[in-house]
Amino acid sequence: MGRLIACVLTLLVFSPKLPFSFCTSTHNLLVPGKSISANQTLISPTGNFALGFFSPENCTNTSLAFETPLDSPGVFLLGSDGNLVVLDGKTRKALIWSSNASLPASATNATIGLLMDTGNLVLGFGKDQTKDPLWQSFDHPSDTLLPSMMISLNKRTDQQRRLTSWAAVDDPKPGKFSLGIDLQLPAQVVVWKENTGPYWRTFKNPSATFLVLSFNVEFDDHTDEVYFTYGVSDSLVKLRSVLNPNGLFVLLLWQDDSKTWSELGDWTGECVRENALTCGRNREGFSKLELLKIPEHAVVLENKKSGKGHAKNFFKKRWAVIAIAIVSATTGLLAAIVGYLLWKRISRNEDNGSAGSGKDGTELPLSGLKSILAATNNFSEANKLGEGGFGPVYKGILPENEEVAIKRLSKKSGKGHEEFMNELKLIAKLQHTNLVRLLGCCNEEEEMILIYEYMPNRSLDKLVFDPYEKIKLDWGKRFRIIEGIAQGVLYIHKYSRLRIIHRDLKASNILLDGEMNPKISDFGMARIFGMNQTEANTDKVVGTYGYMSPEYALLGNFSEKSDVFSFGVLILEIVSGKRNSSFHRFDPTLTLAGWAWELWKEGRGMEVIDESVREACDTHVLMYAFWVFLLASLNNFVIGFLLLFIKLKFRLRIASLGVLN
């Protein structure tokens, strides 16, 4: 009987067609001695939610819930034992439903019912009426998941919170579909169809938290209770997720202008012809269009029963409208010009790097373990520079008094021979001013060691996030660091001997030389792409959450744009001096990007800037840096275009990026 109440929570302000017929309201509080009958409701404080009896369309029964349609009006009140109950409206004696919570004896005639602004109906008692309720409707979902609600599975008790669809759009009885968590798949959100098993499931790795406009999703499988939930960082955004009677799990957004709910991702109602079709004159048809780009996430549906000719006739008869994203040929020409100018500069960098190394980039000198032990004073703690995922890094001095950084694979590291050989193979063939230079290696007595040029200013995270060290990074240095990282990424994507996706760009993997020039390091997780390859997929997602693009973290899909997304996060960290990982869930500051965007919308954009350099920064520089970050995080831009924005210092206006309005 627990889940009965959930379905009567209706979005009062959102919906133009209320299922309630009422004349009075008792606000959001139900106390002993008061009741809700057919013509009354509880209203949440902001007016967004209402609770009451309703009659579904095409249905003559008055219902409070799924399992118990009422032939006559019922009464909702607090029972004599303190539970929420529904009684027969005529006699007020026959019990139809109860919250059936275990209550202390002292709770008799002392409980209250509260309808919260979240849409949660709470049975409260004592001081912590809302923080520790005796019963709440959010624990008993119906077909709808509201922001901050959870679907969950307790690993120890197998107790579940699941959604259950309606039997039909006008019939609130339990339908054929349910949605919950199945640890056997593993740890995925699954829709089951009655008597047939799993019907649909989510992505392989849903444990990342990411930002899409004002909507964030969280999935946690690290505790006894595995749960899936979502939240809204902007209180003006009104969302709800519904498991439809046909088994579709949809996310709905309230449109204030049209006073309707629209399904996110459904654009079928947005395409309108400017000129009417001249039906019957045979002037409409299919044309071959070149220099076009299909949308990144396009899905092609094939009619296996018909040929191409049949498809043409099918669409012509129905006067179908097909919309395709177009990339102008002018954009391609601009890319070619930018590419040539950058290639000229990169060619000089590569020549200088090769000359400095004295090698052809394909072979490295092997160093003996004894010489490395001597250079690092037997891996002394005094020589230790730091430690990363690969293992500790030590400062060493070679016999020629050359300072080097020596990276030693840790026995405890999750990385191993594969990552060691991957870095050795890749970085030995890369020579660029903004990539760290590999000088040698050692693979002796089960030791795997890489020798790099020494970076006296250590890694970027040691400076930009340290309250005392960050003063070394004025605006000019920060700007040059951003540009240098972009140059390095462009080189490995476009102009190196191998086309490489780094997959782990983050502040700790950006090293700074004596002049504060950035150098990208740690290619152990990098992957080589073919010249015509645009995307790859992996079941083994590696890298650092917060820097990963959503499609990589959730689906394992990676490409050049994965690095571009990470670069965008780096820009904001460099500008703000704040770690992306320092923000918490279900807060307007969910991520660094969310925090920055909220400040920007409120006209407080200068607060994004690191206090240590804020006075030296003008608004134009901030705006330009912020929009370069946003372009990168949209995951639709290649690094070459971002570098063009950086070098030419485009002053983008906030209205120019309509997708975020």
From TrEMBL:
MF annotations from Gene Ontology: ATP binding; protein serine/threonine kinase activity
Family annotation (PROSITE patterns): BULB_LECTIN (PS50927), PROTEIN_KINASE_DOM (PS50011), PROTEIN_KINASE_ST (PS00108)
InterPro entries: Bulb-type_lectin_dom, Bulb-type_lectin_dom_sf, Kinase-like_dom_sf, Prot_kinase_dom, Ser/Thr_kinase_AS
Bulb-type lectin domain sequence ranges: 27-136
The protein's Enzyme Commission number: 2.7.11.1
Membrane topology: Single-pass type I membrane protein
Chief place of localization: membrane
SMART domains noted in UniProt: B_lectin, S_TKc
TM annotation in the entry: 319-343, 621-646
Keyword Glycoprotein: yes
Keywords carried by this UniProt record: ATP-binding, Cell membrane, Disulfide bond, Glycoprotein, Kinase, Membrane, Nucleotide-binding, Serine/threonine-protein kinase, Signal, Transferase, Transmembrane, Transmembrane helix
Domain Protein kinase positions: 379-661
Cellular component, GO annotation: plasma membrane
Biological processes per GO annotation: signal transduction
Signal peptide: 1-23
Compartment list: Cell membrane
Catalytic activity from the UniProt record: L-threonyl-[protein] + ATP = O-phospho-L-threonyl-[protein] + ADP + H(+); L-seryl-[protein] + ATP = O-phospho-L-seryl-[protein] + ADP + H(+)
Protein name as catalogued: non-specific serine/threonine protein kinase
Source species: Prunus persica (Peach)
